[in-house]
């Protein structure tokens, strides 16, 4: 975009093959909108009869759910302003008013369609998906490993793990069916096109019957692929998970690319047939994370997949809780908590990328009444023991936090979601572009409220309350890296606050430098020898890119300005501390960021710029003669040294040297990250 008009676009280089029971609100929660009403929409036409005895005999629950579930025509969420809302005030519209065009899909595919793929069902693509899921033992082991190591998963692990035994039977049937598999693929497609509703009386142990066995769906297989792929990305190539039972070694890079390809096939089939359900939202969200890790957070497909995820979330109605709770078929407890967590994770990721790109967010808190998840464990959420559930709920305080010092995946979802609310309010002030006194007061109020919220949190959730040993040894690296990330998220919110204030008044500079140094020092915990295991290191590039690099850029450029001008840094900032921590960062980034990470190239380029600025500061010599020389002339000559002479990165505008200009440039920079190392 920075090239002159008419310049031919450079062809992209080929990428290398590498690679909670009460409905309690949190304190200070924003006011909620009035409820939105559901109304009955779309039902896909069936694909035709398929022999039902082709599938393993389903559990009794699957049959019971099919007979007593919700009205199958209620598929998509329609709110109070929809085209059907006025008519629904008297009585629901007939199903025919919401029907989509018939697919005209034969239940018995012809020989040619089996080989070439049908324009709707794409039978040949089904074979690609099923063959990628072999051997299944690798996927089973990877799923268990994922939920054991991932301490902040947006998905409640037991709900998926309970489906694995039935999925093994389903995939074995598909793998051995040969040419007879095509009618089974058609049945999976027909299931995908159907609405998937969860009865209010369904126990957690039977949830998987809605999307496995005779109800097997393409989004189920896609979710299995995406979770396994995510686990592989954070697992060392030397891990035993990549060694099969027969001793064969799986190539990590190859299997990741194969799984990403098969996952995208599943998503395309599901989107073609209008799949709108919880599993589809899980799949799109998980695939967004995989895309981010593989290509980098500045890759456009990461933003685009976030849009797909948000679109599916809205269509499913996950953002609205009151209308479901007050309906004739309320959500089961475990589904309510699952949707709360998924909404919280999506909302947080949306705000993180919005700030990263400097773009308006896609999810707005003003348009949702979905509450925070309760701070209880996954095993309690999926337990069918009512006494256990009641006991655990009694241990929560009025805000929904557990008072036992335990940390659950839901704990992180609550923390990240509330911080994201402050981020959205900050984005409203930032992206408006106004700089009057009212905006300044609003920004200061947001900062004060955020500080009050953070200081009111239970101490075991605040990283800065731990010693290093108490965190990384006592809690373990899996929890500590998550606590650190949330602490950096909190500091980064104050960093962005001070940046906005600094645009209006120079009096904000000391506070901006202080929080920048805090961000830098906290990020450098990644350089400790005990924190260098593979899974932990895979989290650091995102921390460096989102939190550390902008803060380090402010410090380095302000240090350079003060050096050239011959003036000291503010009294609250130690020059020696700034130089020492910047030196540690630039010396460690070369080995800290693993080559297979999608953010590797961008982190390296930012590190080169920081190193050049730091070298210039350390090598700077003030003029020895002509002391009466004008100050402006000295600045011009000093500014012409190595930093301004650094090679320009292709596709980027010249790099500014003032701290605020540098950050604005960084916000709008575009990077070619297709060439992954």
TrEMBL record:
<dbReference type="GO" id="GO:0005634">
    <property type="term" value="C:nucleus"/>
</dbReference>
<feature type="region of interest" description="Disordered">
    <location>
        <begin position="94"/>
        <end position="116"/>
    </location>
</feature>
<feature type="region of interest" description="Disordered">
    <location>
        <begin position="1"/>
        <end position="67"/>
    </location>
</feature>
<keyword id="KW-0539">Nucleus</keyword>
<protein>
    <recommendedName>
        <fullName>Transcription factor domain-containing protein</fullName>
    </recommendedName>
</protein>
<feature type="compositionally biased region" description="Polar residues">
    <location>
        <begin position="103"/>
        <end position="116"/>
    </location>
</feature>
<feature type="compositionally biased region" description="Basic residues">
    <location>
        <begin position="8"/>
        <end position="18"/>
    </location>
</feature>
<dbReference type="InterPro" id="IPR050613">
    <property type="entry name" value="Sec_Metabolite_Reg"/>
</dbReference>
């Amino acid at each position: 975009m920075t090239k002159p008009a008419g310049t031919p676009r450079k062809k992209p280089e080929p990428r290398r093959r590498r690679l909670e029971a009460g409905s309690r609100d949190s304190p200070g929660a924003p006011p909620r909108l009035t409820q939105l009403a559901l109304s009955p929409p779309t039902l896909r036409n069936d694909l035709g009869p398929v022999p039902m005895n082709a599938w393993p005999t389903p559990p009794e629950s699957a049959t019971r759910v099919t007979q007593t579930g919700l009205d199958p025509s209620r598929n998509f969420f329609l709110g109070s302003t929809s085209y059907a809302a006025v008519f629904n005030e008297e009585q629901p519209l007939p199903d025919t008013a919401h029907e989509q065009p018939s697919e005209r899909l034969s239940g018995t595919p012809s020989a040619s369609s089996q080989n070439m793929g049908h324009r709707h069902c794409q039978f040949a693509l089904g074979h690609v998906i099923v063959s990628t899921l072999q051997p299944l033992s690798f996927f089973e082991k990877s799923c268990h490993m994922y939920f054991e190591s991932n301490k902040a998963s947006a998905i409640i692990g037991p709900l998926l793990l309970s489906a694995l035994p039935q999925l093994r039977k389903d995939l074995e049937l598909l793998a051995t069916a040969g040419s007879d598999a095509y009618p089974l693929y058609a049945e999976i497609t027909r299931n995908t096109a159907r609405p998937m509703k969860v009865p209010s009386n369904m126990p957690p142990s039977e949830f998987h019957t809605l999307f496995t066995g005779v109800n097997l769906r393409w989004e189920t297989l896609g979710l299995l692929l995406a979770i396994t792929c995510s686990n592989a990305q954070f697992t060392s190539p030397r891990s035993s998970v990549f060694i099969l039972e027969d001793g064969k070694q799986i190539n990590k890079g190859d299997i990741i690319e194969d799984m990403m390809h098969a996952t995208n096939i599943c998503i395309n089939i599901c989107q073609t047939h209008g799949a709108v359900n919880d599993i589809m939202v899980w799949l799109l969200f998980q695939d967004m994370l995989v895309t981010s890790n593989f290509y980098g957070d500045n890759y456009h497909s990461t933003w685009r997949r976030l849009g797909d995820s948000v679109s599916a979330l809205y269509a499913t109605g996950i953002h609205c809780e009151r209308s479901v709770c007050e309906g004739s078929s309320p959500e089961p407890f475990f589904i309510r908590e699952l949707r709360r967590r998924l909404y919280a994770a999506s909302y947080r990721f949306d705000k993180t990328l919005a700030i990263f790109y400097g773009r308006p967010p896609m999810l707005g808190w003003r348009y949702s009444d979905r509450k925070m998840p309760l701070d209880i464990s996954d095993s309690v959420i999926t337990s069918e023991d009512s006494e256990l559930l009641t006991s655990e709920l009694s241990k929560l305080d009025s805000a929904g936090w557990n008072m036992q010092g335990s940390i659950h995946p839901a704990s992180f979802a609550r923390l990240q979601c509330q911080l994201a609310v402050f981020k959205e309010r900050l984005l409203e002030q930032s992206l408006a572009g106004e700089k009057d006194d009212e905006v300044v007061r609003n920004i200061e109020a947001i900062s004060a409220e955020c500080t009050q919220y953070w200081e009111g949190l239970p101490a075991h959730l605040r990283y800065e309350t731990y010693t290093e040993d108490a965190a990384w040894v006592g809690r373990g690296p899996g929890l500590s890296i998550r606590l650190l990330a949330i602490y950096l998220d909190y500091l980064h919110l104050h960093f962005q606050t001070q940046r906005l204030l600094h645009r209006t008044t120079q009096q904000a500079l000391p506070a901006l430098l202080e929080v920048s140094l805090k961000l830098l020092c906290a990020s450098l915990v990644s350089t400790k020898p005990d924190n260098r295991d593979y899974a932990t290191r895979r989290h650091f590039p995102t921390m460096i890119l989102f939190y550390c690099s902008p803060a380090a850029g402010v410090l380095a450029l302000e240090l350079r300005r003060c050096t050239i001008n011959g003036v000291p840094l503010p009294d609250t900032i130690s020059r020696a501390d700034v130089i020492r921590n910047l030196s540690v960062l630039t010396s460690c980034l070369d080995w800290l960021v693993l080559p297979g990470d999608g953010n590797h190239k961008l982190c390296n380029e930012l590190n080169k710029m920081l190193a050049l600025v730091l070298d210039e500061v350390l090598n700077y010599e003030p003029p020895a003669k002509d002391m009466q020389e004008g100050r402006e002339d000295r600045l011009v000559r000093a500014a012409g040294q190595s930093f301004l002479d650094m090679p320009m990165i292709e596709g980027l505008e010249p790099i500014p040297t003032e701290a605020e200009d540098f950050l604005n440039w960084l916000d709008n920079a575009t990077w070619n990250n297709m060439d992954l190392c």
